[in-house]
Amino acid sequence: xxxxxxxxxxxxxxxxxxxxxxxxxxxxxxxxxxxxxxxxxxxxxxxxxxxxxxxxxxxxxxxxxxxxxxxxxxxxxxxxxxxxxxxxxxxxxxxxxxxxxxxxxxxxxxxxxxxxxxxxxxxxxxxxxxxxxxxxxxxxxxxxxxxxxxxxxxxxxxxxxxxxxxxxxxxxxxxxxxxxxxxxxxxxxxxxxxxxxxxxxxxxxxxxxxxxxxxxxxxxxxxxxxxxxxxxxxxxxxxxxxxxxxxxxxxxxxxxxxxxxxxxxxxxxxxxxxxxxxxxxxxxxxxxxxxxxxxxxxxxxxxxxxxxxxxxxxxxxxxxxxxxxxxxxxxxxxxxxxxxxxxxxxxxxxxxxxxxxxxxxxxxxxxxxxxxxxxxxxxxxxxxxxxxxxxxxxxxxxxxxxxxxxxxxxxxxxxxxxxxxxxxxxxxxxxxxxxxxxxxxxxxxxxxxxxxxxxxxxxxxxxxxxxxxxxxxxxxxxxxxxxxxxxxxxxxxxxxxxxxxxxxxxxxxxxxxxxxxxx
Length: 519
Ligand code: F6R
What we know:
Layout: E1 2-7, H1 10-19, H2 29-42, H3 47-57, E2 60-66, E3 75-80, E4 85-88, E5 96-99, E6 112-114, E7 119-124, E8 127-132, E9 141-143, H4 160-166, H5 168-176, H6 195-200, E10 203-208, H7 210-227, E11 230-235, H8 236-239, E12 250-256, H9 262-272, E13 277-282, H10 288-292, E14 295-298, H11 311-331, H12 338-347, H13 349-356, H14 359-371, E15 377-382, H15 386-401, E16 404-409, E17 426-430, H16 437-449, E18 453-459, H17 463-466, E19 471-475, H18 483-501
Parallel strand pairs: 10-11, 10-12, 12-13, 13-14, 15-16, 15-17, 17-18, 18-19
Antiparallel strand pairs: 1-2, 2-3, 3-7, 4-5, 4-6, 6-9, 7-8
Bound molecules: fructose -6-phosphate (F6R).
């Protein structure tokens, strides 16, 4: 059997099984399931009936699949909370496939179904039968997947991450398509929350994990600035347990590329209990969050195979900017003169990201990465919207290069972290032109004075910034609110090239899963 998740009552079940004579070879919750299935099978029932009976006994979150020697050619699978996708190969003897998410199966089939909570599927060559835990047959829900096979191949790149970084201009253009209209307005399609309901909202909570959280941080700046609507950003695993104050005038926005991250999903469920309106920004059509939310805004990045989020992160920021503009459109722009400039700049993002990724730029970043191949510690600094960019740059480096990288708001440096800056410490600063540029450069001067080696993300042609840097990561300039979309690109490339210089598998970093379906 294969099990993903946590069985909460496994100790008491194990205790009971031991008294019945079962011998355990490990101290894991997973083994308990195997023993429970064995117990049912020895009573003479089929594998499917045994799994159903077992799942009626266990508490917790799980997606699992079981085979047994007595019933060759059969896989029985079930789930609660943790996701499970079913795929079927073509033809009568079509293979049955199971996975946590769609990209894992894209190379094998285009026909997918989703298993709901407390359902069990019996897969045999060419056939599948879905039932409830009581054995009642149910119609499985087919998933509409328009991702093509090409998207699941490397297409000439050495790895998926490299390919996905370079797909970002297209992914952003697709995410804007049909939403940013020629008349300078935003239209949000699969939204399912009415304009009146949105006008009623007096507070927004953005809830997410990891890179999606960093994207969510940008939304706070955008929604508060453009729509003057109070916005809080929370790490999903904290939000759930800290008694946030929510009511029917609260909009909770879950940001999750997979739409399956358990902490974000449970945070949304928590918010539902307080009558809040729930919306999700997801890359996966019909993901668990998308199915449960009142409104969905899909990022159209295509499947992301590399474990480190790149194109999904950028498109999340773009989707959140669209949401901020939409809310401002409904409630009136804080500064009406802003609107026209913003729409024009948003529409240009694909072209500007393309420029940040041009072969010459990529080669420059690779060369800079080569100079830091032996560096073990990095600081990433930013202010305002540059702060989430610094956090995301640091996270990318940590997860694929296994190097220590700290992201800080630059103004916070003197409250402690500056003690760590010594001659040779590498500081990567986001120093593109926003209203805080001068203050950011003041912070850069502080670290330079202590001997740090400074790498700055700077706008093309900005020699004044370049003069304060040992190395420069050049990016095109845009409206400050959209700068996170562009400024993070060289930081993705920096992490990518450093990781490759170390010989790491950038697509499958150690200890990490693409979809985090356990707490
Ligand atoms: C980082 C990364 C993770 C995810 C996080 C949330 O590169 O991929 O930090 O961003 O696990 O995942 P989703 O967006 O699927 O909820």
